[in-house]
Amino acid sequence: VRDGQRPLDEYGEFKAWWVERGAALFCEPRQKDYVEALPQEHQPIDRDRFTVLCVPLQADLDMTMKAIRTVLQPRFERYRDQFGHFSQAKHRVIGNTSLSRLQTILNIRCIKTADPKRSDHLIADDVRIQINRKFENITNLEKHKADRVREHLEAAKALIHNVGQGRFPDFTIPGAERPRPKAKKKEIDWDNL
C-alpha cells in the first residue's frame, strides 16, 4: 500500500498520501457509462408516450436510480404540460389514504345500514377496531369503541357526499374548508344538506 512513499505522520501526511496513492488503490473508478435516453432513430415506439433508457448495470444502484429520476423528471413534466395529468382513470384519486381504513369505514357503514339498532361498541368488535388505551372499566372501553365507530360513520357520510362531487377519497365535511374538528358542538344534519 505504501510502497516506498513518504512516512505518514499524524499531522496531515495522510491527505498527501491519499492524493498520491490511496485514491488510486481504494476509490471506485470514475463512471464511464451513464443513464441516457436513446436517440429516436430506429425506435419503433410512440416517442410522445414512451422513453427508451440505456441503463448501465455495473454502476451503483442508488446512483443509477437518481440518474434515472434526473433523466425522466423533465420528460414527465413535459408530458403533463402537453397532455395533462398522467392518470387515465375516469375519476382521479385525491390524496392518499390506507385501503384498510376505507375497508373498515365500508364495513361499519354496511353493518349499521343492515342493522341500525346494533350497538356501536358491538360494531367495533365486529370489525375488530382496537383501542390502544388501558381502561379502568368495561363501560369506558365500550364508550371509546362507540366513539370510534361514530367517527368512521361520519367519515363515510363525508366520503359519500364528496364522491358525488367527483372527489375521492375526500373526508372533508361538506361546506367546511378542513376536516371536522373532534370537539362535539353541533351535529351536522347530513341527510338534509
SSE order and pairing:
Blueprint: H1 13-26, E1 36-37, E2 53-54, H2 61-83, H3 99-114, H4 120-126, H5 138-164
Antiparallel strand pairs: 1-2
Helix pairs in contact: 3-5, 4-5
Please provide a written account of the structure.
The protein contains five helices and two strands, in the order αββαααα. The protein has 193 residues and is mainly alpha-helical.
Low-confidence stretches: none
Radius of gyration: 30 Å
**What is the succession of H and E elements?**
HEEHHHH
Name the beta content range.
under 5%
Shape field? elongated
Tell me how many strands there are: 2
Please state the average pLDDT score. 76
Structural class: mainly alpha
In DSSP terms (H or I, runs of 4 or more residues), the helix count works out at: 5
Largest sheet properties: 2 strands, antiparallel
In short:
The chain is mainly alpha-helical and 193 residues long.
Features:
193 residues, mainly alpha, two-stranded antiparallel ribbon, 5 helices, elongated
